[in-house]
Specification:
Number of strands: 33
Largest sheet: 8 strands, mixed
Helix content: 40-55%
Strand order of the largest sheet: 14-24-23-16-17-18-19-15
Length: 906
């Protein structure tokens, strides 16, 4: 560990005034602090304050104590703040109050802690009431401080405070918090202080500096709260960043009807449309809006409520969008007619909005196409390709809410997060239904297919978090009466929906349907299929935006993008989706169905004559398959992997066959008995490491020859018909150069045979699939006999980690992610340090042996956005993935080229 003295020398400054920072210091000041500083420095009305750096947080979390000098720096900046405001923190006559807020480099909405109204005490609450001329406001502010401080700093269960509020309302016969008067709130303050003493074992601190210090430490601690850890894991945010702490002079939106608080977006975060978007709530503090506790009014209504503040806000929004050159998310408060900016950040948006806004900003001259490409992602494009509801049939619409995050989600209704997690673990789909969500619901929001709330709008907790995760969400469906305790909700028309009933929610329209609604292909998929042309009248602005960005990505990318496809139709679809070839044809799929009988004959053959007879029957069938595939990809490379899985996979199950024979007794057929013998003979304890891949080709005479003859005959047939077939033969599971040399010799012999028979020469490269760690570390010698490598990263990951994917993912991967062993499954995103290192070694050593070695990847990592960037970095020539993921890989390949500073087209 770094010593305190050394750390103090490395980072001499631990606290920054807003006037000292800027938006480029997010690593040090966090996103919130850096942006508050930026707004201050461009002259916007920001309450004064200061920022405690992320470095101080990291030190505190590592050492368990604050860095040397931090207390003095806080005191100095507090003095400056008091001088600027003209009030002292917690002064009994005229108190300065401050908020203490978290603020990490990356936005983590609601995941860490905030404490408002620091500085209030039994004495200063009287001074606040006098200065504000509003006794109710002062006691409400003190009540809020006690509640937040108790829950956040002293770890008191928030339910105790909620029950006390409910009891106060019940005693008075009211249902709304606003109907509690000053005396009621004063009584609540005493009740809350009693709760704190009983539950925390100490009195609420009356010293304002002690309040401040404890709140700062609580915010530091909240970086490692369970919900913050879960959110970082979900969003792949590094764990070692820490959070900054923002200490800001309080401004109050709850001083009366001339005050209020709101959240605004410079464009619609759901669609990208320009206009006035946001929510406003009179006589309220910020958490009332975000929590969705009270229903807001549209931001446009502020023009009627307070036109001067509305006009000023519109001008500020225009200034911020032009300054940041992006959609901005803004929090503001109006205190007795004066507008204050409390936060801005580049706003989270839906996938559709991301593409639309990127192109809008290009057309407005704020960014260029290169930057537009960096503003969207493959994950967002994938979300646009998800299906949508088909409502052409009979549907039962039961409510309409706010379209908070798009998508089509169907599932069983659940009313608590634990139940959503439980259903997901059992493979069932859930829709999480709440009045409003809070940060503690994160695990349920992740597990659910979609989220439905009866309160809140586009700026509520549910909406913001769902948009960030790409999760379907409908908020503010006020027609629904949600009863969490009874686990049901009622809708207009006397409809009652109970836990376990199925509903469908449309995050694009905000409509809630009873029952399961069928889905149809998205318009974006129709565009990639060629059914919608971007210049046609049927295409909307989203399709045109996607088209322009895809064209630019294709122009920028160095990596080729191929598809994994095993049939002619799959190949044709891949080609329509923009694939530049087929990187993997799995020939074993051609042996299933009715052809399984011929494979059984091959396995049961007792003589070479019988074996050849079975191979001769299979060859023309395989030839027909290859004709279909090569024809669909005419003029483009098609990499055909010879048979890979062990032969027992083509035989009946051992247990089922044994039972069948036992039940048949003496009537069991000779073939069944022979099959049972073959199944037992070929049974392996670990088939993944057994007789498969190239080992089959070398052990079973004629198997490789039959497949290569089929490929060569198909190619010759097409070439004679004037086509341009480009087959490539890939030998699977090679681990030793000797295997590759023997397989190459056999392949060349078969190719030569067909060339002599047909008089037609078809150039057919021969290469291997690198999926065994030994092949990766001996790539140099293997490359001498292989014209190309294709990394089979699925098996390479299994063998490098010692995992059997089918067993371990369900057995312990979720636990490994909880423990931080994985940030993400290594089968989803390439393990750079382990598997990735093997890939890098194989590429470098292979090309050292054969400089013109062509290298690609055909595992499904080829369609994973993060992995595509890695494959670009290590110099692969192409990635290959399922046809549906081809557009995603194309987009990410373009982004990877820009990220690395290159703009080389293929």
């Amino acid at each position: 560990m770094t010593s305190r003295a050394a750390r103090s020398q490395e980072v001499p400054k631990l606290v920054y005034d807003f006037t000292e920072g800027n938006k480029d210091l997010k690593d040090l000041l966090g996103g919130k602090g850096a942006n508050l500083a930026e707004m201050t420095n461009i002259g916007l009305p920001v309450p004064p304050g200061f920022i405690i750096t992320t470095e101080a947080c990291r030190y505190y979390l590592e050492q368990g104590t604050t860095p040397e000098g931090l207390d003095k720096e806080i005191a100095d900046h507090l003095d400056q703040l008091e001088t600027a405001i003209g009030r002292k923190l917690g002064d009994p006559a005229d108190p300065l109050l401050v908020s203490v807020r978290s603020g990490a480099k990356f936005s983590m909405p609601g995941m860490m802690d905030t404490v408002l109204n620091i500085g209030l005490s039994d004495e200063s609450v009287q001074g606040l009431a006098k200065q504000a001329g509003n006794e109710r406001f002062a006691w409400d502010a003190y009540r809020r401080l006690l509640q937040m401080f108790g829950k956040t700093v002293l770890d008191v269960d928030g339910e105790h405070f909620e029950h006390a509020i409910d009891a106060a309302k019940k005693a008075k016969g009211i249902s709304n918090d606003l109907d509690l008067d000053a005396a009621d709130l004063q009584n609540l303050v005493e009740t809350f202080k009693g709760i704190i003493k009983a539950q925390a074992g100490r009195e609420f601190p009356q010293d304002p500096r002690e309040q401040l210090d404890l709140a700062i430490k609580a915010v530091f601690h909240s970086w490692n709260s369970p919900r913050a850890i879960l959110y970082r894991r979900q969003e792949r945010i590094p764990t070692d960043l820490g959070t900054a702490v923002n200490v800001v002079a309080m401004v109050f939106g709850n001083l009366g009807m001339d005050s209020g608080t709101g959240v605004a977006f410079t464009r619609d975060p759901g669609t990208g449309a320009e206009g006035v978007y946001g929510d406003y709530l009179q006589n309220a503090q910020g958490e009332d809006v975000v929590a969705g506790i009270r229903n807001t009014v549209p931001l446009q209504d502020l023009e009627t409520i307070n036109k001067a503040c509305f006009d000023q806000l519109m001008q500020i929004m225009h200034t911020l969008e032009n300054h940041y050159r992006d959609l901005c998310d803004i929090e503001f408060t109006i205190e007795r007619g004066k507008l204050w900016m409390l936060q801005t950040r580049v706003g989270k948006r839906t996938a559709a909005a991301a593409f639309r806004i990127a192109i809008q900003l290009v057309d407005q001259g704020l960014i260029d196409m290169d930057e537009a490409l960096t503003r969207v992602s493959g994950a967002e494009l994938a979300r646009l390709m998800f299906p949508r509801f088909d409502t052409s049939g009979e549907v039962k619409k039961i409510a309409t809410g706010v379209s908070a995050s798009p998508g089509a989600a169907v599932g069983k209704v659940v009313f608590d997060s634990a139940r959503a997690v439980e259903l997901a673990a059992n493979g069932e789909k859930a829709i999480l239904v709440r009045r409003e969500t809070n940060p503690d619901d994160l695990h349920g929001m992740i597990a659910a297919q979609g989220i439905l709330t009866s309160r809140g709008g586009k700026t509520s907790h549910a909406a913001v978090v769902a948009r960030g995760m790409g999760k379907t969400c409908v908020c503010g469906a006020e027609e629904l009466d949600v009863d969490n305790k009874a686990k049901k909700f009622t809708a207009p028309g006397g409809i009652t929906v109970s836990e376990g009933d199925v509903i469908s929610i449309d995050g694009t329209s905000g409509i809630v349907y009873l029952g399961e609604i069928p889905v149809v292909s998205s318009e974006i998929v129709r565009y990639f299929e060629g059914e919608l042309q971007p210049d046609s009248g049927e295409a909307d602005d989203l399709i045109r935006a996607v088209h322009r960005i895809m064209v630019h990505a294709d122009a920028k990318r160095r990596l080729g993008v191929h598809a994994n496809a095993d049939t002619g139709p799959d190949c044709a679809r891949a080609r329509r989706f923009g694939a530049g070839g087929v990187g993997l044809v799995r020939t074993e799929h051609m042996f299933l169905g009715e052809r399984r009988q011929l494979v059984e004959d091959l396995i049961l053959a007792d003589t070479q004559e019988q074996r050849q007879h079975a191979l001769d029957a299979l060859e023309p069938l395989q030839r027909g398959d290859f004709v279909e595939i090569l024809d669909a990809m005419d003029g483009l490379p098609v990499t055909i992997r010879l048979i890979d899985p062990p032969l027992h996979e083509f035989l009946p199950d051992l247990t089922e066959l044994s039972i069948k024979i036992a039940l048949a007794g003496d009537n069991a057929t000779e073939k069944d008995n022979k099959l049972l013998g073959a199944v037992r003979r070929l049974h392996e304890q670990n088939p993944m490491l057994g007789l498969r891949g190239v080992r089959l080709d070398l052990v079973i005479p004629g198997l490789l020859n039959m497949q290569v003859l089929a490929i060569a005959h198909a190619a010759a047939q097409l070439k004679q018909a004037g086509k341009d077939p480009r087959p490539e033969v890939m030998i699977p599971l090679v681990a030793a150069v000797q295997e590759m040399e023997i397989a190459r010799e056999l392949t060349e012999k078969a190719l030569k045979q067909v060339e002599e028979e047909t008089g037609t020469q078809v150039h057919t490269p021969i290469g291997t699939m690198i999926e065994v760690p030994r092949a990766a570390v001996t790539a140099g010698p293997i490359a001498a006999s292989a014209e190309f490598f294709s990394f089979g990263t699925n098996d390479l990951t299994q063998m490098t980690w010692g995992f059997s994917r089918d067993d371990v993912e369900a057995a312990f991967f979720s636990r490994y992610m909880e423990l931080g062993v994985f940030g993400v499954s290594p089968f989803e995103t390439i393990d750079r340090e382990g598997v990735g290192r093997l890939v890098d070694i194989a590429v470098r050593e292979g090309r050292a042996s054969r400089p013109d070695l062509h290298v690609g990847v055909c595992g499904e990592h080829g369609g994973d956005p993060d992995s595509v960037h890695f494959f670009h970095e290590v110099g692969l020539d192409y990635v290959s993935c399922s046809p549906f993921r081809v557009p995603v890989a194309r987009l990410e390949a373009g982004r990877a080229a820009l990220e690395s500073g290159g703009s080389d087209s293929r």
